[in-house]
Write a structure and sequence with these properties.
This protein is α/β, with parallel strands linked by helices. It has one domain: 4-Layer Sandwich (Metallo-beta-lactamase, Chain A). It has 8 helices and 12 strands. Strands 1-2-3-4-5-6-7 form a 7-stranded mixed beta sheet. Strand 4, helix 1 and strand 5 form a beta-alpha-beta unit. The longest helix is centred in the middle third of the chain and has 21 residues. The protein is globular and about 55 Å long. The C terminus is likely disordered.
Length: 270
C-alpha cells in the first residue's frame, strides 16, 4: 500500500483514515465504520489512491453506501470515479462542482493522464446541514464558509466528541491558501476551539486534539504576513518552508502559487 491507515476508536465508533503519500498531497479519506455499512468522506486526488481506499474498505467486509465530498478541490474530488456508491455534498458544493469541476479535472488530468480522469464526477445527493442518524450513529452535517474554500462540509459525531473537519484543519502539513480567507478562517478556528470536540480528523495529516486549532492560527497568521512581503510564488514558498521546516505537503505550496501570486495578467481563477 502506498498510503497509510490510522485507526481511531472511541466507544463503539471506529474511523479508518487513509492518508495518501506526498504524491497525493497527504490528503485524507475517512471511513466511518457502522454496524452494517461504511460511509466514506472524500475521494482522494487520483484513481490509484482511491482504489487503495476501496481495497482497504473491502477488508472490513461491509459495503460503502455513501461517499461524502467535502468541497470541490481536486485532491478531495477527482478519485470519486473509482467509487460505485452515490456521491453526497452540500448544495453549494454541488453547484461549484457543476460549474468548475470539469475544468479542475482537465487541468489535473494533463499532469497525470493515467491516474486522473478528464472529467469530474458530479454528486447526485444533497446534504442538508443538521442532525441525522444513520445505522444508529448520530451525525451532524456542518456547512463551513469562508475558510480554506467558500463552502465546505464537515461532519461531527456529537455523542463522541469527534469532528471530521477536512480542510478546515491541516495537521503537520503545509496549508493550501489559494482563496486568501485568512481573517474569516482564523475567526472560525477561534469559534470551533470553544466547542466540545476533542478528537479532530483533519483533511491532511494525522488525527489530533484541540492543539491543532492553535497550530492552524499560528500558520495562517504567519502566512498572511509572508504573503504581503513576498514578491513571487517562490519567495512565498521559501518563507513558509523557513517558518515551518518540519511540515510535509510542500507540493501544496507549488499548487497554490498561481492563485496567490499569479504571473499572468488574468488574475486568480476560482
Amino acid at each position: 500500500m502506498l498510503g497509510t491507515i490510522t485507526l481511531t476508536r472511541r466507544n463503539e465508533v471506529s474511523i479508518h483514515t487513509y492518508t495518501s503519500p506526498e504524491a497525493g498531497w497527504l490528503v485524507n479519506t475517512h471511513i466511518i465504520e457502522l454496524p452494517t455499512q461504511l460511509l466514506v468522506v472524500d475521494a482522494q486526488y487520483t484513481i490509484t489512491f482511491a482504489r487503495e481506499v476501496i481495497r482497504y474498505a473491502e477488508t472490513l467486509e461491509k459495503p460503502i453506501t455513501r461517499v461524502y465530498i467535502s468541497h470541490y478541490h481536486p485532491d478531495h474530488l477527482l478519485g470519486a470515479a473509482a467509487f460505485s456508491a452515490p456521491l453526497y455534498a452540500l448544495a453549494e458544493v454541488i453547484a461549484k462542482i457543476d460549474a468548475v469541476g470539469d475544468r479542475v479535472a482537465s487541468e489535473e488530468h494533463e499532469k497525470h493522464p493515467d491516474a486522473i480522469p478528464a472529467h469530474a464526477e458530479k454528486p447526485s445527493q444533497t446534504v442538508n446541514p443538521g442532525l441525522v442518524t444513520i445505522d444508529g450513529l448520530r451525525l451532524e452535517f456542518l456547512r463551513l464558509q469562508l475558510a480554506e474554500t467558500e463552502n465546505a462540509l464537515m461532519i461531527a459525531l456529537p455523542d463522541h466528541g469527534i469532528l471530521i473537519a477536512q480542510d478546515f484543519l491541516y495537521h503537520g502539513v503545509h496549508v493550501f491558501l489559494g482563496e486568501r480567507a485568512f481573517d474569516t478562517w482564523i475567526h472560525m478556528l477561534q469559534e470551533f476551539k470553544m466547542l466540545p470536540y476533542d478528537l479532530l480528523l483533519a483533511g491532511h495529516g494525522a488525527p489530533g486534539g484541540p492543539e491543532i486549532y492553535d497550530e492552524m492560527i499560528q500558520y495562517l497568521s504567519f502566512a498572511k504576513e509572508a504573503l504581503a512581503k513576498s514578491s513571487s510564488g517562490e519567495d512565498l514558498k521559501e518563507r513558509l518552508i523557513a517558518g515551518f521546516p518540519n511540515l510535509g505537503g510542500r507540493v501544496l505550496l507549488d499548487h497554490q502559487q498561481r492563485y496567490l501570486l499569479p504571473t499572468h495578467t488574468g488574475g486568480i481563477q476560482s
